[in-house]
Write a structure and sequence with these properties.
The structure holds 2 protein chains of 2 kinds. By secondary structure, chain A is α/β, with parallel strands linked by helices. Chain A has 3 domains: 8-99 and 178-195 and 358-417, FAD/NAD(P)-binding domain (3-Layer(bba) Sandwich), CATH 3.50.50; 113-166, no CATH class; 198-355, FAD/NAD(P)-binding domain. Chain A has 9 helices and 22 strands. In chain A, helix 1 (16-27) runs parallel beside helix 2 (58-71). Chain A is globular and about 65 Å long. The two termini of chain A are 20 Å apart. Chain B is mainly alpha-helical. Chain B has 2 domains: 11-103, Fumarate Reductase Iron-sulfur Protein, Chain B, domain 2 (Orthogonal Bundle); 107-362, Fumarate Reductase Cytochrome B subunit. Chain B has 16 helices and no strands. The chains are: A alpha/beta, B mainly alpha.
Chain lengths: 421, 368
């Protein structure tokens, strides 16, 4: 039985939370529309190599969801689109969406001929700048929608147009323009997610200055088979296989100078990433420097499993100084080993900063009268009727909890649409 | 595994510590960022993380025998990087204030110093009684000569006795502290006391350790000017005594005299130094964060000592009798304050820090 089939729910953000919220709504029979800023759906999850604690590939679940989207006519989505204005009230919102031009239409078959023709390179933000793409590119191997896109900030446009010549299908349209779309929706879900905190802001951790210091999200891309190193964990300075690696926990999190809260997932993410290295290189050694390890509830089992590996060492003490050996490009970290009351200066091939989650709503203002707490997370209780927020937009959390919230939001939206509460 | 030990927290110690500027101590969550960013902290048993937990747990006895709180030069690199706003630099500063109170004898003097009004009332009454006894409770006629007000011998006897008493008390406090330090280590020394002591003094003269501070680099200038101001004024006192007894030259002494040049330069150095320190405290911590009252009291007293001293001279030169003698009286109050309360005030850090660094050198922990 379809509920409120003539009404629409808008989901802002096409990451795992947004996709789930839209699917659950649409599968109940109500129309759902996703507005996503990136040229693809899947958000941060699309960049992960594996999930904790089961260590299964996130793309498996994502593909399942994308198939559900494809098969369900009640769901539509806009990529490269952002919500500019929200007016009206519960049951009857008018939403203005701005969609940037993709310059590639639905005729694209992802044959890659355009990329071969394109003369311009750009840093690949999907891989955190660890490799490059052409100005026309596929966001990543499994992009949904499977369609190329042109980065207009670097593309030379019509004076070049080599891609247009190369495309046999007439899929490239350099005349495409940005457009504004007006939507009428009954309820809205904020699933705006997070960015990785800018690690260059922690000057003592030397990210950006010491070449072999990377972030945890970069580690996901290094380990991923579709990443810049095809899944080999090689250090940036010389491409050497990483043998001895350190993780710096709370890099920015639980720090009033940076993110004044625990990002909730970094301990588990680090333990998960420790298994990447141990699995790919049996002789490798991993050291995790932490203040407190947070593996709540059932995650403790995963911690026990990781801790049992004698090549993985946990040392209590926060790394507060990172330097580079100019000759070998090795990374030297200084930390007080709290249990032994001793400062240690240890050398590693590579260091991973377990950087935290910064809500999108902290760095970007959103329409809809959204109120945030001091750290930028949306205050659910202060949202106007008919507007809901889920996932990391309301607080740092893992995928599992985000999905629970997103599923719950579907019933909130439907209740709004049928006039109940 | 660390040995098992039952801790008995001294709750009042924690409460007192919070009152004298350590109110942020409980915010610390033991991440140890401070021990790493501190340019002074050694590799073996680094500080100030361990001091933070010792203070949180009220481990008074261990803290009072801890040379590390004195090895700290309060440059606050730790507070800048502290993720919790626990301000380890301020807590260590409060621990030093607590230490001075606890270690100095007689202990009632420490209580007096904690009450600035009482602390100033005492010299007021004493000086007033001295004047009354000498029959000088009026402004003397004629040219302004301060010895017509308080005679040289009165000043000498009074302040001579005060210096002796304060000095004795201070020496006893230092010996106590040294005893505690020695008991930490036993006999394993890498350097002799004499050598370590001389090296420490040379470092002080150059202020080398201050140059390691990053968060608060300009503290060096203020501290150095105050330090040399006091050294200069001490030399002035010796110089003027020499003039009086050996050369038979009596004050007021001509402005052209090298002694006068020296004295005025020293006073200016003290004044400028203390103004720089005040400027740093305002800028460094912001108006909202309070520098401990122990620190502020001391800073203000030194400022007033310098200002009243210079005014005493300027008003005399201007020839305003009605103002000059009262100003001299007030200045003597602050001189009294500085000397008598030395072992119980911030100035006492001089000896404790010297001993702590000497000890560090002797056991081979000095970070240079």
């Amino acid at each position: 039985m379809a509920i409120a089939p003539d009404k629409t729910v808008l989901v802002i953000g096409g990451g795992i939370s947004g996709v789930t919220a839209a699917l659950e709504t649409a599968e109940a029979g109500t129309k759902a529309v996703i507005v996503e800023r990136n040229p693809y759906l899947g958000g941060r999850v699309a960049q992960l190599y594996r999930y904790f604690p089961k260590l299964c590939p996130p793309y498996c679940g994502l593909e399942l969801n994308f198939r559900r989207i494809k098969e369900n006519p009640a769901i539509t989505f806009y990529t490269m689109a952002e919500v500019e204005d929200i007016s009206g009230s519960a049951g009857n919102f008018t939403v203005k969406v701005k969609q940037r031009a993709r310059y590639v239409n639905e005729k694209c078959t992802a044959c890659n001929a355009c990329v071969e023709a394109c003369p311009v390179e750009r840093p690949n933000e999907f891989n955190f700048g660890m490799d490059t793409t052409k100005a026309i590119y596929l966001p990543h191997e499994l992009s949904f929608p499977m369609r190329y896109v042109i980065d207009s900030s670097v593309c030379k446009g019509k004076e070049c147009a080599k891609c247009v010549e190369a495309c046999k299908y007439g899929a490239i349209d350099l005349d495409m323009e940005d457009k504004t779309i007006e939507l009428n929706v009954g309820a809205i879900v904020f699933a705006t997610g997070w960015n990785l905190y800018d690690a260059t802001k922690m000057d003592n951790l030397s990210f950006g200055k010491v070449k072999n210091v990377i972030t945890n999200m970069m580690m996901e891309r290094l380990a991923a088979p579709n990443g810049p190193t095809k899944g080999k964990i090689l250090r940036p300075s010389d491409g050497k296989e990483v043998q001895n690696i350190a993780f710096v926990q709370c890099a920015g999190s639980r720090d009033e100078n940076h993110l004044n809260y625990c990002s909730a997932i970094c301990c588990m993410a680090t333990m998960k990433q420790a298994t990447y290295i141990r699995e790919k290189n049996p002789d490798s050694k991993v050291t995790v420097f932490y203040i407190d390890l947070r593996a709540p509830g059932k995650y403790e089992d995963f911690y026990k499993k990781v801790e049992a590996d004698e090549n993985i060492q946990f040392i209590k003490g926060k790394v507060a100084k990172i330097e580079e050996d100019p000759e070998t490009q090795d990374v030297i970290v200084t930390v007080e080993d709290v249990a032994n009351v001793k400062k240690i200066h240890e050398r590693f091939d590579m260091v991973v900063l377990a950087a935290g989650m910064e809500p999108q709503t902290r760095t970007q203002r959103f329409p809809g009268g959204v109120t945030t707490e001091e750290n930028g997370f949306i205050l659910k209780d202060k949202l106007q009727d008919g507007i809901f927020a889920v996932g990391v937009a309301t607080g740092p959390k893992d995928v599992n909890t985000s999905n629970q919230e997103a599923t719950a939001s579907a019933i909130n939206c439907i209740q709004t649409l049928v006039g109940g509460k | 595994m660390p040995e098992e030990r039952v801790l008995s927290p001294d709750i009042n110690f924690i409460r007192d510590l919070k009152k004298v500027g350590g109110e942020t101590v409980k915010k610390c969550y033991q991440c140890a960022t401070c021990a790493v960013v501190c340019p002074m902290s050694p590799d073996e048993r680094p500080f100030p993380r361990k001091e933070m937990i010792m203070a949180q747990l009220g481990q008074k006895e261990s803290l009072l025998a801890d040379p590390d709180i004195w090895y700290c030069h309060n440059c606050n690199d730790c507070s800048k990087y502290c993720p919790r706003g626990a301000r380890p630099g301020d807590v260590l500063s409060a621990l030093r204030a607590k230490f001075i109170n606890e270690n100095a004898i007689p202990s009632f003097m420490a209580k007096i110093v904690r009450n600035p009004i009482l602390a100033l009332a005492i010299p007021f009454v004493i000086l007033f009684l001295v004047l009354a006894a000498e029959g000088h409770l009026h402004i003397p006629e004629g040219k302004i000569v301060y010895s017509h007000f308080f005679s040289i011998h009165t000043i000498e006897n009074l302040f001579g006795a005060l210096v002796a008493l304060a000095g004795l008390s201070y020496i006893i406090s230092l010996v106590r502290f040294w005893g505690k330090l020695k008991s930490l280590n036993g006999t394993d020394y890498k350097m002799k006391f004499g050598d370590a002591f001389v090296e420490t003094i040379v470092e002080f003269l150059k202020h080398t350790k201050f140059t390691k501070c990053e968060a608060n680099a300009d503290r060096k200038n203020g501290h150095m000017l105050v330090f040399y101001g006091f050294v200069g004024l001490f030399i002035t006192t010796c110089w003027i005594t020499f003039y009086y007894y050996v050369m038979k030259i009596h004050s007021p002494i001509s402005l052209a005299d090298p002694m006068k040049w020296w004295a005025n330069l020293s006073a200016l150095s003290l004044l400028v130094g203390i103004l720089i320190i005040i400027g740093n405290h305002m800028k460094d911590k912001g108006i909202n964060t309070k520098t401990s009252s122990f620190d502020w009291t001391f800073i203000i007293m030194i400022l007033l000592l310098a200002i009243t001293g210079l005014l005493t001279e300027l008003i005399r030169l201007a020839g305003i009798r009605q103002l000059a003698y009262p100003m001299y009286f007030v200045h003597l109050m602050f001189v009294f304050y500085t000397i008598v309360y030395f072992p119980y005030s911030k100035l006492a850090h001089m000896g404790y820090r010297t001993l702590a660094i000497t000890y560090y050198k002797m056991v081979g922990k000095d970070v240079m």
